[in-house]
Amino acid sequence: MAPKLAVFKLASCDGCQLTLLDCEDELLALAGQVEIAHFLEASSDVRPGPYDLALVEGSVTTAEDAERVRAIRAASRHLVTIGACATAGGIQALRNFADVDEYRRTVYARPEYVSTLATSTPVSDHVHVDFELRGCPVDRRQLLEVITAFLAGRKPDVPDHSVCFECKRRGTVCVTVAHGTPCLGPVTQAGCGALCPAFRRGCFGCFGPSGSVNLPAQIRLLRRDGLDEDAVQRFLHTFNAAAFDEELRT
Amino acid sequence: MTTTAPAAVLDRAGLDTLVTTLVAQGRTVIGPTVRDGAVVLAELSRGDQLPYGWGVELDAGRYRLVPRADGAAFAHSAGPQSWKNWLHPAHERLWSADRAPDGTPAYTTEPLDPPQYAFLGVRPCDLRAIAIQDRVLTGGAYEDSRYGARRRRALLIAVECTEPGGTCFCVSAGGGPAAGPGYDLALTEVLDGDGHRFLVRVGSEDGARLLEQVPHRAADPATEATARASVEAAAGRMGRALPEVDIRELLAASPDAERWNDVASRCLTCANCTMVCPTCFCTTTEEVTDLTGDHTERWQRWDSCFDLDFSHLHGGGPVRASARSRYRQWLTHKLSTWYDQFGSSGCVGCGRCIAWCPAGIDITEEVRAMDAERPVSHAGGTGEQ
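Above: the input entities. Below: the structure tokens describing the complete assembly.
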């Protein structure tokens, strides 16, 4: 019997699970290997667990989601989180550095209707996670690699080194060295194929901190390349704000 | 192989013909060209793709393309790639395997039919770097046959340096701006009142045959003298220098130096230095499978001693977890233990690791600081570098 695949979403934009639908050339092959048992973005045909592999997108921002992710864990042999929200709390983790009640009062006409936690946290803060796939959104090839690796029972080939590895391997001219462009590539985990520098943009850090980060040294470079203190903070406080912030504090 | 063929002179049209002749012979011509704000190496089909009129300004962590009024084609240095990008590529499939319906695997070794490269514009430092990689990858009992096949078919057209960059230090690394052995043809660009031309020296039978097919004239004494003088002048205009001490011994004696902590505070462990280094050769291999599990491939790809996973041992995590230990590994191997392993230094003084380090870490400055930290000065040393 084919392994059962399930896709779940917490607080997120759906972009990561959309990446699975974006695997157009491989979707039929995938459907041939697994039973897609729960994937609301693709089908309303929902089948009950237990599931062999659950892909979870999104962060935990409500008490209900904290409860739900425990139920997902209980129903899943392997749980893989996909994307910056699920692995680092996402951009909504900016609330972690602010007063969520103040946000609620400022933004909503009837703040009492909004029931939310004070923080946005990664799934791994709540349940055991078998593998975390980074990215905002995740990379299509890496997502297929992770699913393929789980089907084969092997370790996924998902290195945790810097984006610079990918720039140099694909022959992209360094945007920092040659153009003075601020770039988070040296502290960001590879996986996107060094997409932004290939279009002469600095890396935005979508894949979060690499396995070997020297953030104080990186911040000195950003300052050298023209960002003031506030701009540096804004640069680091995007999709992986909480993860980069944790690096700064350790 | 050296030949006794006399030196010749090509004009710009002759150089254009050289490129088109190589292409017509079926060679894949790789040479310098301007792309994305840098002089990169790329496949060329015509001579006018060379970076005529472009120079570079280099400093630690800084590279800027600057226009030159003299129209020179080869007045640049230390681009972001080296010839290893073609001889020892960043990704390479080694073999694949398929499972037959009865379960038996069938292996297919990747065919060994590399392009016949012609490298145009190989700097003297890079000629030495290629010779070092030859020794590393084909010199021992276990040749990297894929590298070897590409290398044996490659034609090397060197270009001597008349405009060293701010990060260049080949002279203090035991080389210099004049082309040493290993080339098929060696060009020296000459720009003066008598026009834009290239002195050509022949280094092999292949080079002699190629020159015969390209319009040229016999070298005149004035062109030879001007070429010689500008290369000699370049030797005195290196932007940087390694200290004149026995660096092999210095680093062997410095595993506990305080300076490693200092450099580790600046090092991003991003691996750019190893990726741009023309002699760094380390790779990793990874197996990939397809969704069915019936097809698998083994790929080799560039790795780096700055990668945590590089020193990962089963059950024990990385051996070199700290940035200090990884930078020390790189520098000590490059300048000291490389002698033990391969009989020479691993550094040719091209300066790429200085220019392309986003943090601007300067290998010559680090060695100087190591030397300054030693309680007893070894200035003068043994002369071995």
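Note for the figure: The longest helix of chain A spans residues 140-152.
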